[in-house]
Structures are given as C-alpha cells and as structure tokens.
Amino acid sequence: MLIYEVNIRVAQDVATRYYTWLQQHCHYMLQHPGFLRATIHSIASTTAQSQFCVHYLVESQTALDHYLTHHATQMRAQALDLFGTQFSAQRRVLCIKDTIHPLSVRAEDA
To answer: What angle do CA 96, 100, 94 make, to 5 degrees?
Structure first.
C-alpha cells in the first residue's frame, strides 16, 4: 500500500470554490484502478492562502505508475483550467511501513 500525497496552496479568494471542486476531483480519482480511498485534510496556516493535503490510498506502485503514465496530465489540467495560477500543488509518495493500533487491555490487567 502507498499513500499518494498532494499538498495544495490556494488563494484565499477562491478557496471555498477550490475545496468544492477538490471533493469532486477526489471522486474522479477513486475511479482509477488501485485508488482505494481519499482523505482531505486542511492545514492550519498563518499565510494568506488556504492549504489542503490529500492522501490517496493506492494499492500498489503499479497502480500509481499506471495513473501517472496514462491519466495524471489530464487530471492535473482540470485544476489548471479552472484555477490557473491561483493554486500550487506538490506531490510525493509515502510507502506505508507499518500501522500501529492501540493495544487492547485484558480485563485482568485493568
């Protein structure tokens, strides 16, 4: 499993419109094979921009490579057509190394 992370900075005057578009965009992204889930985070900021971070859970590097090779340019162009220079995006790939869950407490240990 991988997390395809997209960090976005958006001009404040279009932030609400961008966020509405971003929610729909995530639904389109999840139609690509291997894209399992999208989580949108807002980032606290003291700048004049709104910031979002999107985590797409992707099942494999092969699925991500297929998206990047065959679909990424078109998907990215949609935002550019709508918002031009009013946003910027940076991307990175995180490899899930481990997932830690809370330890359960046995009744006799409580």
So the answer is: 15
